[in-house]
Description:
57 residues; alpha+beta; two-stranded antiparallel sheet; 2 helices; 2 strands; extended
Amino acid sequence: MAAAMALIQDTSAIIFDLRKNGGGNGFMGGLISSYLFDKPTHLNSIHWKPAGNVTEI
């Protein structure tokens, strides 16, 4: 991810085409957004039922 973002760092726009996306790791969204937002931004919460806690991404 870091290499891909370095490659496009001087671009003025990005389009993420998520068609036919089968899902994946929710933490990747947090990683991608860290490159797109100037400050931490709440995007999602994951509720872990067995542990009874919440992780904010």
